[in-house]
Amino acid sequence: MSSTSPETRPALEVVNVLKQFKQAGRSELFTAVNRVNLTIAPGQIVAMVGSNGSGKSTLLSMIAGSQRPDQGEIRVAGVAVTDMPSWQRTGLVALVRQNPEHNVFSALTIAENFALADAGKSKRFNLKGAVTPRIKDMARAALAQFSMGLEDRIDNLAGNLSGGQRQAVSVAMATCRDPGLLLLDEHVSALDPTRARVVMEKTEEIVRARRVATLMVTHDMSHAIKHSDRLILMHRGQITMDLGAEEKAGLTVPTLLRRFEELTGESLPDSAVLA
Ligand SMILES: Nc1ncnc2c1ncn2[C@@H]1O[C@H](COP(=O)(O)OP(=O)(O)OP(=O)(O)O)[C@@H](O)[C@H]1O
């Protein structure tokens, strides 16, 4: 079998990626992501944790296509996306953001949101007539996975949903077409702890069932340990720790926080502890 066949090629390859920013009042550039290498296998769930400002969101935004690396290469499911605008990555990369407001259009119904997501990179989108029986079936099936009754509300305005319901809709939309890679940028951090747990557990269940490779940024260390196959730690623009399933098996939140402190001399913010 060829090493580049769909079954074996990595879901994500980040090769030597560098991103620098100009800083106000300073002549030298600030390095936010410092020659990062990261490979994610098909179906693998990777949790990424790290201190504030360590470069997690910048790395995610380069993978999603809203920023371009200054150097390096990014491939998703074998496709070179480094210079591809984000709208062209639909189907390859799906992103669920922290703020529920940023993931769904409040003025559209749930079904219309699905129609819009499905239209993806096609430039012509006409809302009138876009909600076809196929879209409705797709939306109902995707939403039923969350067991929140959302499949019976597809004609409701998304703006009338709670934050947790919106994030459930967002994950359902992001995964229903089986993207090459799912990016979760603190997608449950704006929810209350109970809702956060439910949405996180369902998210894991869905991505495992669909075998969608996932890179999840979180400040909740227990989520990072519990809901991943692998845990990576970013610090000052670099990946400083990379724990596979075996190393992660006996890991507890206090041990993880201690290991981070030993490695970096700094404390890791744990939203579950801070909450
Ligand atoms: N557009 C920009 N211009 C200048 N500096 C930036 C820009 N975007 C990010 N940075 C800086 O790059 C660093 C990394 O930011 P980034 O948002 O990636 O960190 P993070 O790990 O996601 O942090 P947090 O956990 O707090 O969300 C920070 O010091 C930030 O101030």
Could you spell the SSE succession in H and E letters? Answer: EEEHEEEHHHEHEHEEHHH
Radius of gyration over C-alpha positions, nearest whole angstrom = 19 Å
| Cofactors and ligands | adenosine-5'-triphosphate
CATH topology name, in short, is: Rossmann fold
Basic shape? globular
Q: Could you estimate the helical fraction of the residues in percent?
A: 25-40%
| Number of DSSP-assigned strands | 10
Side by side, the strands of the main sheet go: 6-7-8-3-9-10
Unreliable residue stretches: none
Cα-to-Cα separation, first versus last residue: 49 Å
Give a description of the structure.
By secondary structure, the protein is of the alpha/beta class. It has a single domain (about 10-275), classed as P-loop containing nucleotide triphosphate hydrolases (Rossmann fold, 3-Layer(aba) Sandwich), CATH 3.40.50. About 30% of the residues lie in helices and about 20% in strands. The protein is built from 9 helices and 10 strands. The protein has helices at about 55-65, 110-120, 135-145, 165-175, 195-210, 220-225, 245-250, 255-265, 270-275, and strands spanning about 10-20, 30-40, 45-50, 70-75, 80, 95, 180-185, 215, 230-235, 240-245. Strands 6-7-8-3-9-10 form a 6-stranded mixed β-sheet, sandwiched between helices. Strands 2-1-4-5 form a 4-stranded antiparallel β-sheet, covered by helices on one side. Strand 4 (about 70-75) and strand 5 form a beta hairpin. Helix 2 crosses helix 3 and helix 4 (about 165-175) runs parallel beside helix 5 (about 195-210). The longest helix has 18 residues, at about 195-210. The N and C termini lie far apart (about 50 Å). Belongs to the ABC transporter superfamily. It comes from Paracoccus sulfuroxidans. It is a peripheral membrane protein. Its main location: membrane. This is Putative ABC transport system ATP-binding protein.
